[in-house]
Amino acid sequence: MPKGLKSLIQWIWGFSFVRNAGVLGLAELWMAIMLFAQGIIVARWLGPEQYGIAALIMSYPALLFGFFDAKASTATTKFVGEFSIQGRRESALAMCRLGYLVDAGIALLTLVVVAATAGWAESHIVHTPGVAWLMTVYSLAYLFQAFASPSRAVLLLQGRFRSVAVAEGVSTTIGASAVIGLVLYGWGVKGVVFGNMVTWVLSGLVLGALAQQTIRRTWGGSWIRAPWRALQGRKREIIRFLAFTELTELFNLLGKQTDIVILGYFSGPTQAGYYRVAKRMAGVVSVMVKPLQSTLYPRLARQWGGAQFDDLRRTVSRYVFWMGLPLGGLVLLGIPLVPWATVILVGEAYIPSVPVAQLLFATAALWLMFSWLRPLFHALGEVKFLFMNMAFLNVASAIGYLLAAPRWGAVGVGWATLLASSICGFAVGLIYALYRLRRIAESRSKTILDEKA
Length: 453
What we know:
By secondary structure, this protein is mostly helical. The chain is built from 17 helices and no strands.
């Protein structure tokens, strides 16, 4: 490697944001490779119809979990970050306790509802007899998610990016290998379901153990016995944050899970299989989005909690021009390669999925460009705006799915996703973000003038 290039790489890697996001990004890249390879291999072996059945079996519990999910890990990041920087040890432990209990309750509720409605979903969504028990078994995996999400939030707040990266990378590798192995040995759809459960179980156990160790070392105690009185004075704010986050995710799942469920209902497993492959291909972009947001959000939460308003505005500005816009532009440039990649990776049987994949890649590019919006709004506590925005846009998306799926199948759902949930959603979010940042700057200027006076 040329000396100048090596020096440049070392200089870039010297920035903590780049280094932390890079560690998570490498793990995400590895996980994406494993999941992509798993998806391609399994799609070839099972064919569009069987692959679509497996996707629908897992999508129904995921839809219900998303319906109930309050994203307690988001609240954990914000409030534990604030309590930690303010030196409120017991409050930080109590917030951890709340995060774990909320997620555990949601996982149990999901299991009960799936068990009660799996028979209906078997006949009306999957259109395949004898799979109701698989949906119920798959929903057990969400009990381990109750440990994974809050644990991940705690670990990232304390700077343990490498630990999170290794734990998630190893869990995904073992889970993807389990899927391929089980399908290879003739388990078919059941192999896909059980193999995917392995990833959830392992990540929950490993991240949970690492988080308990970190919590004890950082705050000198266990979240299990943390006193609720330590949240006195902030309970209403925390409940409000959780409530609006729950409502936001409730509407957000309309764009994440109802697309494939509606496709299965109106167009059958084959169209669902095409859409699943296209979504898996475009999902490669999450390799970049998730680690960037996971690194950005704790930093913004600490800056807001510590009243470091100028630092917060600089962090957002640098992210937009050095990360979001350049990376999103690269994804747009790669869209013409989608037809070639589809034939090479999954074969000519999936050629009908090409237009869908191109639409979803365009959606992913916009997601990258504006990936800073959600971390910023969560750090500022703007959960009410997020809820209102997501409610309107995802209801519009769901209506688009219902109108498009019966007539145009997967392609129609792809257009609904791009137009409603992406272009309109990011435009509204950008306008409001610029307004809030301007208000912060004005408030800061007024405070400085008052102090001088």
